[in-house]
Every structure is written in C-alpha cells, then in structure tokens.
From TrEMBL:
It comes from the Eukaryota. This is 1701_t:CDS:1. It comes from Gigaspora margarita.
Length: 174
C-alpha cells in the first residue's frame, strides 16, 4: 500500500529480512536502553489540579468548598522530547495544616483535556506524598511536580518540596 501511494514520489526501501531488523533493534534496545535519546509522545499527560472555581467554569462542577477539579497539561502528544527532560508544574497546598497530598496523573489520546473525568482521559496512577514540611509556613510551601518519560515503558513522577528540598519519586508503567 505504501508503494502504491508513494512509490512514484520517493524511493521505498524494504530490508531483505524485516523481521530480523525489528528483532535486532529490540535486542539492542534491551541491552542498552540509553540508545534512545528522544521519543514522540503517543499520549498527552497531565495532573489533576484543585483550583478555585472561576466564573467561566461550569457551576455544576463547583464543589461545596468553592473549588473545581481540572486536568493540567504537562506534556502534549506528538511532542518529540528528550527522555531526560522533565515536564513540571508548581503547586501549593490547599490547606495551611496539610502535611500530605495525593497527586493524580492522567493521560489522554487528545492534545489536551479540561477535566479528568472526560471519556477520553485515563488514569495513569496516584502518587501520595506524606511528610510535607510543617504547617508553620502556611500555604507558602510549594512543590514542583514533574513527569519524565524515562523509557518506552516507564514514566517517572517526581515531587520536590521547594520549601526544604525533599524529593519523592515513583514510576508508572504503561
């Protein structure tokens, strides 16, 4: 089909043993995963944020505490990225006495999403971080939440306290 469609425009070359080429590439990758320096994202990835409800948000989504849960895009599908690059967002606690937080990560086949419960949005995983800095600083205890697409199979989530430098990490497998 490719030859029929593009054969008159470009030269199409097929290895004599395509199965062998695929196997060799898989073996080389398995022996040295660092040979892949970049990849193109098949999905868009994000984290649930718990924002103050705004006037342009649907009233039906406002929770009793005046907040709304939304999808915050970290990395967009189709992006070619360095496997060592991190995609991050800074967040702050919701409550002054909060010492733990549950981060929920999601992915979608779309380029972006507005809410985490949209039909095309799927949960990547949860990451509960305990032991956030003491509440003496109130809400001024930001954390940097990052995703790194370490390999073809794994996504690494990192939470770093901007207050005391503590780092928490987990890996999601797809």
């Amino acid at each position: 089909m490719i030859k029929e469609e593009f054969g008159d425009k470009v030269k199409i070359s097929v290895p004599p043993n395509p199965d062998t080429a695929i196997m060799r590439g898989a073996c080389e990758y398995g022996l040295d995963m660092s040979i892949i320096a970049t990849r193109v994202l098949k999905w868009s990835y994000g984290v649930m944020v718990y924002n103050d409800w705004q006037g342009n948000d649907p009233i039906s989504r406002m929770e009793s505490n005046g907040r709304i849960k939304k999808f915050h895009l970290l990395a967009c599908k189709g992006t070619e990225l360095d496997v060592e690059k991190e995609y991050s967002v800074t967040m702050v606690p919701i409550h002054a006495d909060q010492t733990s937080v549950l981060f929920q990560f999601f992915y979608t086949s779309e380029y972006n999403a507005r809410y985490c419960d949209e039909p095309h949005v799927m949960k990547l995983g949860d990451f509960k971080v305990n032991g956030l800095p003491t509440a003496s600083s109130g809400l001024d205890r930001s954390v940097l939440i990052s995703l790194r697409f370490a390999s073809m199979e794994n996504t690494v989530a990192t939470v770093k306290s901007q207050y005391n430098g503590n780092v928490y990490q987990t890996t999601f497998s797809m």
